[in-house]
């Protein structure tokens, strides 16, 4: 066996291949977010990006471009409304966090508790946003029901949600500290982190796992 053949069949090659695919996925997500004027672009990019990433990690031979844009084309209508609703909610909660933060001086229990509650609601809503985008791809039901179940998964797997929040803050600080990471793997890297920490329900809950696999098969028929 030649050196090239050994390299192609090695773990190093697989990891390198996955890394470049994650970089390409990040580029497509950035383009989608910009073209979607952020408000529309973010939810559809996350939904298509997270699903594409899960397929890449499951089967490394997955072709990034065709997979991502097929999912984008077939799921954007299902994702868009739920995403915008949650983005508005995140913006309102973010405003609350800032409002209560600036009211902390002079000391007031009202502002302290308001800040803590608003902050946790904001962080858990961001996690629920991720779950809602995945659930939107799987189920074609009313947006209220999808968002509700997004929160239920966030709370039901609370320890993983807290771990994701902690690691997400650290990852954000790392991207700020090393800006080039944002261009290379900023969004797809965040999705990789979310996949490792938040995708347990889609593997552990049998009906959810089955519905997820069936929905993916239907998109690529």
Descriptive terms for the model:
221 residues, mainly alpha, 0% strand
Radius of gyration: 19 Å
> What is the residue-mean pLDDT, rounded to a whole number?
91
Which series of helices and strands comes N to C? HHHHHHHHHH
- The count of helical stretches stands at 10
**What characteristic shape results from the CA principal axes?**
globular
Helix content: over 70%
By secondary-structure content and strand pairing, the structural class works out as mainly alpha
Low-confidence stretches: none
Note the beta-strand portion. Answer: under 5%
Largest β-sheet summary:
none
Fold topology:
Layout: H1 3-8, H2 11-35, H3 41-58, H4 64-102, H5 109-138, H6 143-156, H7 158-177, H8 180-198, H9 201-204, H10 206-219
Q: Explain this structure to me?
A:
86% of the residues lie in helices and 0% in strands. The chain has 221 residues and is an all-alpha fold. The protein has one domain. Helix 2 crosses helix 8, helix 3 packs across helix 4 and helix 4 packs antiparallel against helix 5. It starts with a helix and ends with a helix. The mean pLDDT is 91.
């Amino acid at each position: 066996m030649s050196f090239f053949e050994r390299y192609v069949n090695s773990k190093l090659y697989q990891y390198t291949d996955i890394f470049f695919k994650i970089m390409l996925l990040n580029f497509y997500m950035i383009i989608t977010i910009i073209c979607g004027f952020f408000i529309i672009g973010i939810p559809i990019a996350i939904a298509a990006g997270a699903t594409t990433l899960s397929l890449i990690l499951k089967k490394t031979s997955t072709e990034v471009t065709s997979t991502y844009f097929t999912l984008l084309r077939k799921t954007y209508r299902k994702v868009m409304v739920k995403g915008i609703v949650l983005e508005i909610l995140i913006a309102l909660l973010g405003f609350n966090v800032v409002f209560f933060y600036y009211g902390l001086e002079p000391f007031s229990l009202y502002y302290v508790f308001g800040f803590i509650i608003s902050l946790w609601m904001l962080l858990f809503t961001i996690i629920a946003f991720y779950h809602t985008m995945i659930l939107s791809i799987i189920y074609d039901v009313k947006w209220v029901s999808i968002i509700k179940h997004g929160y239920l998964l966030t709370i039901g797997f609370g320890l993983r949600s807290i771990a994701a929040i902690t690691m997400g803050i650290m990852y954000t600080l790392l991207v700020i500290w090393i800006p080039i990471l944002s261009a290379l793997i900023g969004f797809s890297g965040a999705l990789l982190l979310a996949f490792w920490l938040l995708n347990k329900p889609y593997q552990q809950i049998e009906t959810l796992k089955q519905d997820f696999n069936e929905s993916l098969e239907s998109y690529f028929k």
